Here is the input.
Amino acid sequence: MSILDDLNPFQREAAATVEGPLLVLAGAGSGKTRVLTYRIAYLIQEMGVEPWNILAVTFTNKAAGEMRERVENLVGDLAKDIWIGTFHSICARFLRVEAEKFGLERSFTIYDEDDRRAAIRRVFESHKIDDKEMTPRSVIGQISRAKNAMLDPASFAAEAGEAPNRKLIAELYTAYEADLRRNNALDFDDLLVETVRQFDNHPEILEKYQRRFRFSLVDEYQDTNKPQYMLCKQLAAHHRNFCVVGDDDQSIYQFRGADLRNILDFERDYPDAKTVRLEQNYRSTARILEAANQVIGNNKDRKGKKLWTDGPDGDLLELVQCDTDRREARFVVETLRKQVGSGGYTPGDAAILYRTNAQSRSLEEELQRSGMPYTIVGSIRFYERREIKDLLAYLRILTNPADDVGLRRVINMPRRGIGDTSLDHLQRYALNHGLNLFAAMGFLDQVEGLNARAKKHMGEFKAIIDELAAAKDEVTLPELGQRLFERSGYQQMLLDENNPEAETRTQNIEQLIAFMTEFCETRDEVTLDSFLEEVALMSPMDEAGDTSRMITLMTLHSAKGLEYPLVFMCGMEENLFPTARAIEESRSKQNQQAIEEERRLCYVGITRARQRLYLTYANRRYAYGNMIDCEPSRFLQEIPDELYSVKREVVEFNPRTRQPGRNRFADKSPKERSDRSGAPVRKKIPKDKPKGVHYEWDEGVKPPPQLDAFADFVDQDDFLAVGQWVRHASWGRGQIIARDGHGENMKLSIRFGPHVKKVAVAYAQLEPA
DNA sequence: CAGGGACAAAATGAA
DNA sequence: TTTGTCCCTG
Here is the structure.
C-alpha cells in the first residue's frame, strides 16, 4: 500500500523516480501538480526524507501556496519545513540570509518597474540624454536583456562592436548599476543574477545549500531563463536528485528571457536523465483537446506530444464573429447570463481570456451593466495604486534610508513645500559627498543654495522618518503603518481633499493595514523587510483573491496553470493575437519564433477549458480612440472546421444606411435609442467654439450648473450621453474642459486637481431617419 | 512652488 | 481615449 497508488502508471513513475535527474514532460491537464505534491509526500512519508532537505520552486506565489497546501493535506504539519517558493522569493531569501558574507546590506529594497524607470530617468538626466533619441523603456529593456544573458556592463560593452549605440547603452547600464548600489537596491533581474554570481564567488556557501537540498523540484521549467537555469544547476550539482516538470508547448515567457532550450536540451545537460511523459489529460473534452493539438501541431520547435483523453467528446467549439469589440463584449456577457441562468453554471465556472490587458475594458463595462460578479486579474493592481505605493515608499525608507527613488517619491507627498529646485541642491550636495539623499539631509546647513524654508521643511521630514524608523522595531507592523499614515500627514491630506476619490484612497490604505495584520498572523517571522519583500514579489494572480464565486477576467498569460468549465477567448484577431509585433518579426527576421510563442499562448488558452470553449473576434475594434479594421486570427483556421458548431455572426446593421456597424447608437440600450426619436434636427457644434474653454465650480455644487455650462456653447439637447458622465462624476472642486469636436463627437474632460478623473464623450445627435 | 493648459505618446506579456 | 510631461503663470 503506497500513497502513489492514487496515480496512473506514468504519474507514478514520475513521482517515484526520486534518484537522479528527471524530466517530466507534462501536458496541460495531465495532473502535473498532483505528481509534484505526491512526489514530495512520497519522499517524506515513504523515503524518510526530512522536509527541510526538499526544495520546490514555482513561478508564482499562488502556485507555491497551493502546493504547500496540497502537500499539507497529505503529510500534515511536516509540510511547513519544506522550502517552497518562487525563484524570486527564494533568491531574495538567500541574499538576505547570507547578506553579510555576500557583502550586501540586509535591508535592500526591491525595485519594481516604476522604480526602475525612475532610476533610469535619473541616469538620463546625469548623462544629458534626450529622451527623444532613446526612450527609458528601450534602455531598460536592453539592460534587462543583458542581465538575463548574465552580462555585466563590462562584458556587455566588450561584446559591443557594430552598433554605435551600444557603447552608450553600456555606459548607462554602468551608471544604472551604480545608482542601484548607491540606493542599496536590487531589481527583479538582480535577485536572480546576483544570487548566481554570489554563489559562484562563494563556493563554500553554495556548498552548504547543495548539501542541504537533497531533492529539488522545479515547476514550469519551460519558462526558466538563463540565471534560473544556472541556479538550478548550481543547487542540484551535488546530489543531482533534480526533477524538472514542464511543457515545452506552454513556454510563454520568452520576453522575460525564458529559454525554451532549457527544457528541450535537458537530456543533453543531464545525459543520465530519465524522461517521463504525461499525455493523458483529465481536464478537457476530446474536442477541446483535438483543437489544442491541431493548433500546436503547427509549431516546429517542440518535443512533440499528443494529449489524449478517455473522456467524452463534449460540445463543439463556438466561433463567433462580432461587429465590434463592444458587440463582442455583449455577446460574451449575454452568453454568460444564459449559461449561469439555465445552463447550470456558476459565475465562478467562467473565465474570459484575452491577449492584452487593455481588452478588459469593454468587457468590464458590459459585465458591470449585467450585475454579474466578476474580478479582473491584474488590471488595476492594488499595489500599483498611488496611495499604496506612496505608503510603501515610506516604509522602504524606514528600513533602507538609502532608497533615493522611494524618498523622491514621498518627500513632497503630502505637499511640504519641497520642490524640484531644493531637491536638486540636496542632490548635488549628496553626490559631491558620496551620500544618499537621506544622509545628506543630516547636513542641511552645509547644503548650498537651500533657502531657510526648504531647510525647515526638509528637517521636519527627516524628523518624521527618524522618529518612525526608531519605532519600527518597537511596534507591530500594522501599528507602524497606522502611525506612518498619521504622522506623515498623508491621512490629513486625504481628509482635506474631502471627496469620494480621497475616501476610496483612505479605504485602500486601511486595506493595506488590514493586510499587514493578516500578514503578522499568518507568518512566523515578521519583519518590515519580509513584508516589503512579499509585496514586491506579489503577482497579479496572487492579488486576485477568491475567484471561485466570480467570473474571472485575465490575460492568457495569467491563466496559465488554471482551468475553468467555461472559457471565452476574446479578440482572436490578426495583429492582436498574434500581436502585430510577432507578425512583423516573423516577416523581417524570417523566423517563426515569435509566432510560435503566440501559438503556444493560444494552446495555453484552449487547454484552460474543461467543457465549453468560445472563440470570438471582432470586425472592428477601438484602438487609441478610433476604430480599426480587424481580420480573424490565423489560429482560428488552424482548428479544423468540423470542431466548430455553425459559425455565428453578431452584426448589427444601421437601419438608415443598411451598412454594418455604421450606427453609433447600435450599442446603446433600446431605451437610449428610443430617446432619440422625435429629437430635434442635429445642430452643428459652433466652429468658433473657443478652444480649451473651461468651466469651474466650487465644492458641493451639484450637476445642474455644469449642464448649464455645457449649454453655454452647445445645446444640451445635442447630447445623449450627458446623463452618463453626470452619474460618474464626483463633486469636488473641478473643471470641465471642452476639447475640439470631431465631427459629430464632442469630447469633454472633467478634471479634478492634476489628474483627469473622468472623461466623458458626448455625442451630437444624428438626423432623424 | 503649485496648478493649468498644450502637446506628445501610448499598449504585449510580468516576477 | 487616456496618461504623462513640459512650460507658463500667479
